[in-house]
Structures are given as structure tokens and as C-alpha cells.
Design goal:
The chain is α/β, with parallel strands linked by helices and about 190 residues long. Helices cover about 30% and strands about 25% of the residues. Strand 8 and strand 9 form a beta hairpin. The two termini are about 20 Å apart.
Length: about 190
């Protein structure tokens, strides 16, 4: 949140889109942005699930559902777009490119995060090192360990893949931040402006 606020400079009048909200907050960090963002009256939350219960919990936020493909907004509808650890869940490389291009299309600037493919602990399962195997093998092992649902549909990104995504976008500037623990990059954050 501090990097988002520092780089994107939202104010109470800034229209902000939060992409990838979860209908059920089944773990502590779910929808963290919704709870922490200081200007909820100018916040729109976009997700693929019905967010009826979230509308009650966050009454000042506008919730919008979509089909997981094209965002239902006109070009540059928002001042800022935000997405936390969603791009790795949207599908293959083509779907990831579509997801990022939609964020860029609907907002004048934006910020998203994603786990580092090469961090020693796979963040969805908390299993160390096994995700260095070919992904299909890792999924099979997760199935044996009854952890397959944690990684179903996940496609983790390396630094090179994140940069490749951004280099294919029509933005005038982007910055890749590496969020580190003990010198190792845990997640990447990307900030861009049109």
C-alpha cells in the first residue's frame, strides 16, 4: 500500500479501480486493499464473483462483476488501476497479456503485484523448492499432497516475463520494483503511467 500511495498519488477525488476482488475473504490478506484504501468513496472493485457480502462490509465501494476477459469500462475511465497478486491467476501468457492490457486501457496510471516465480518458497502452497520442477510435475506433487487447489490455474512470472509484459504495453513509463526479504525477491510490483 505504501508503494502504491507513494507512486500513484491518489487523492479523495481520484477514481481508482481495484481489479481482482474476492467475494469470500477466506484468509487474512484477501481484499487487503479494500480495507486499507483511505478513499473508499472513489473506489471501484472489479471481480469475477458476485460480491453481495462485500457490498455490505464496504458500503462506499462500487462493486462490478465481469467475465474475466475485457473490463466493462471505457478507455481511461479511471485515474489509477490497482491489482494485487491477480495476474498469475488469470491463465496462460496470452490471458496475462490481455489482463495487463485491460488495466492499461482503462486507467491513466496503475500498479500491480505478482509473486516471483524464482523465490524459493511457492507463496500459494508455502512449499519450498518443489515449484522449481516443471510446473506440471509440481501440480502433480501438489495433488498428492492435497494442495492442488492452491495452484490450479496459477502461472507464476519471472522478472523477465513481467518486463516482457510491460514492454508490450502502450505506456510511456513503467518501473519494476523488487520486494525483497533477506536479499531475495519475493514479489514484483509494477508501476506505470500512460
Amino acid at each position: 500500500m505504501s508503494d502504491f500511495m507513494r507512486l500513484c498519488h491518489p487523492n479523495p477525488e481520484s477514481s481508482v479501480l481495484d481489479v481482482g476482488v474476492l467475494a469470500v475473504e477466506s484468509y487474512e490478506a484477501a481484499n487487503l486493499f479494500l480495507g486499507d484504501y483511505p478513499y473508499p468513496r472513489s473506489l471501484t472493485a472489479l471481480g469475477i464473483e458476485d460480491c453481495h457480502e462485500l457490498r455490505i462490509k464496504y458500503p462506499f465501494v462500487e462493486f462490478v462483476n465481469y467475465d474475466g476477459k475485457r473490463f466493462p469500462f471505457a478507455d481511461k475511465s479511471f485515474a489509477v488501476c490497482h491489482s494485487n497478486a491477480v495476474v498469475e491467476h488469470v491463465g496462460d501468457a496470452q490471458r496475462q497479456r490481455l489482463f495487463v492490457s485491460e488495466m492499461v486501457r482503462v486507467a491513466r496510471s496503475g500498479f500491480f503485484t505478482t509473486p516471483n516465480r524464482w523465490f524459493p518458497v511457492e507463496l500459494h502452497t508455502k512449499i519450498p523448492l518443489l515449484h522449481y520442477l516443471p510446473w506440471s510435475w509440481f501440480v502433480r506433487i501438489c495433488r498428492l499432497l492435497r494442495r492442488e487447489k492452491d495452484v490450479r490455474g496459477v502461472r507464476l512470472l519471472s522478472r523477465r516475463q513481467v518486463m516482457g509484459l510491460m514492454e508490450s504495453m502502450p505506456v510511456s513509463f513503467y518501473e519494476l520494483l523488487e520486494n525483497r526479504v533477506l536479499g531475495l525477491t519475493v514479489t514484483y510490483s509494477v508501476y506505470w503511467i500512460e
